[in-house]
Amino acid sequence: MFSSSIVIRVENVTQRFRVIQERPDTLRELFSKLLRHQSSFHDFEAVKNASFEIPQGQTVGIIGRNGSGKSTLLKLIAGVYQPTAGRVEVKGSIAPLIELGAGFHHELTGRENILLNGLLMGYSKRDMREREQSIIDFADIGDFIDSPVKQYSSGMYARLAFAVATEVDPQILVVDEILGVGDMGFREKCFDRIRNFREAGKTILIVTHAMADVAKHCERAILIDHGSIIADGLSQEVIATYTNLMAPEVVGAH
């Protein structure tokens, strides 16, 4: 059961993927491997026995080196993946920004995708028509709003995706590096909205490699490395742990 303030609970969660090592070129090779009981794949644990709780209104940075399991963790919370083991519980509406262009139909226009995304999140056509102009104004992509999104730059994707996700007023916002493709002016506009969300008591999860953003906007940080959570606490303290973790790699690079 949830306590009244907990909105996200991750309990002993493991996410395992099957990784193909090599593909047989012919049916003969395939049957040969089967007869010899040779395996052409192995299991990889992207997240290993992770547990934590996030209360309502907290802004949390998820940090770690590339390939550490951060994005997999967010996809588990967003419901994109079902965990191999353990349990994920989320209380409240969630708007996930976890992959550039995810949830967009590339043949539809930006305006059409606004409606589609809203319907997928459970809003009515009328609701989305009422929000449409505010979304368009925030995204600020001009006449491209009536062009197929397959013609968009990565920055335009980010603008429209963030505008839709935040205009529908979710209780939980999940952001995975998507702000990294925007220009400086748009990033500031996004973080202004994130600050407004914080003041309104929303819960926010941010995956980023920008430690300055974590220090500035997140009171808490979770450090994940090789799929395991190795630090969870005040942002500045966890950032220091991450910096120490990365120091040998930085020295080695020189």
Polypeptide structure, described:
It is a single chain. The protein is an alpha/beta fold and 254 residues long. The chain folds into two domains: 6-92 and 171-253, P-loop containing nucleotide triphosphate hydrolases (Rossmann fold); 101-169. It has eight helices and nine strands. The strands form two sheets. It has a six-stranded mixed β-sheet, with helices on both faces. α4 (125-139) crosses α5. The protein is globular. The model has no long low-confidence stretch (mean pLDDT 87).
In the CATH hierarchy, what is the class of the largest domain? Alpha Beta
- Tell me which CATH architecture of the largest domain applies here: 3-Layer(aba) Sandwich
State the fourth-level CATH superfamily of the largest domain. P-loop containing nucleotide triphosphate hydrolases
Please work out how many helical segments DSSP would assign.
Answer: 8
Stretches where pLDDT is under 50 for at least 5 consecutive residues are: none
Tally the beta strands.
Answer: 9
User: Which percent band covers the strand fraction?
Assistant: 25-35%
CATH topology of the largest domain: Rossmann fold
Distance between the termini: 50 Å
**Quick check: average pLDDT?**
87
Strand order of the largest sheet: 5-6-7-3-8-9
Secondary structural class: alpha/beta
Order of helices and strands: EHEEHEEHHHEHEHEEH
Structural shape = globular
Number of domains: 2
Range of helix content: 25-40%
